[in-house]
């Protein structure tokens, strides 16, 4: 993934100044990918990108140095297994003038031993996570990020259509999942997840796809995603095998209205919890509030789940360029579940849906 590292470092430093953060420490993972376009092999050896207000450098295991040098011209302070990382870390902090910082932002995904190593080297420094700095930047997608997310959404749409075409009585949940995975692979994407929940299994939001046989009258939750060019997809649609089960149409309509309410509520300047409330209100008013058991959505970018989270308590102010899911659901134990999911990017006038696939129920002929 090609990125403009200098531009992103400059934007990060603006956020650091605004939040009073003197150092941002980033471990190998998606934060580093966003900033540099790569990350070294992650293992138990401390490896940190240290970004100060004026300079940046790496604490880098010797083992990874040669390969990483091909990806970046940022300076390294290397350490070998025989010596340990402490001296190299001290030298790296001195190099970027970060020894006396008042506040350090830690990559929330880094290993606890990496974090403790750094905090021990910065006695007295306050620590936070990246919500005010790198995390805030990642929530707003640029045109290149949007293009890759849109491309992946198209692949997922076509994988879902393949699943619809394949559904028949007698096949298993895993058999239908195999059709999805095969399609992702056919377009050069790596399958990431494949939830297929038939009948009562659909009432478990994160059902583990298994050997249950699809039967006539089953409602089937299909929640799938893949990854290509460093970005993911995520979509949920509903299908039935022949005639829908009793009461299905009413519940599907309620969930669809909840999706529409959330889409209407999602505007720049609105709190994320207000979008959750809009969807939840529709379902609660219809008498099914206790059966909507999860948040309304999650952000999506390099990671399939990342901020902003569309929850009942989120104080995140939605901004233009944020990408997140809207996916309310109703789950009736022992009967069926219904979830409809869209990924949207927030534009000036509201959300743009990445998928082009209707949310209508697909009825498989038997």
Please provide a brief summary of the model.
The chain contains 10 helices and 18 strands. The chain is α+β, with helices and mostly antiparallel strands and 366 residues long.
Key features of this structure:
Creatine Amidinohydrolase, Chain A, domain 1, 18 strands, 366 residues, alpha+beta, 5-stranded mixed β-sheet, 2 domains
Tally of helical segments: 10
How many structurally independent domains? 2
As a whole number of angstroms, the C-alpha radius of gyration is 23 Å
Percentage of residues in helical conformation: 25-40%
Report the CATH superfamily of the largest domain: Creatinase/methionine aminopeptidase superfamily
Explain the overall architecture.
- The chain is α+β, with helices and mostly antiparallel strands and 366 residues long.
- The protein has two domains: 5-138, Creatine Amidinohydrolase, Chain A, domain 1, CATH 3.40.350.10; 143-364, Creatinase/methionine aminopeptidase superfamily (Creatine Amidinohydrolase, Alpha-Beta Complex).
- Helix content is 34%, strand content 24%.
- It has a six-stranded mixed sheet with strand order 4-3-2-1-5-6. Strands 7, 8, 9, 10 and 18 form a five-stranded mixed sheet that branches.
- The model has no long low-confidence stretch (mean pLDDT 97).
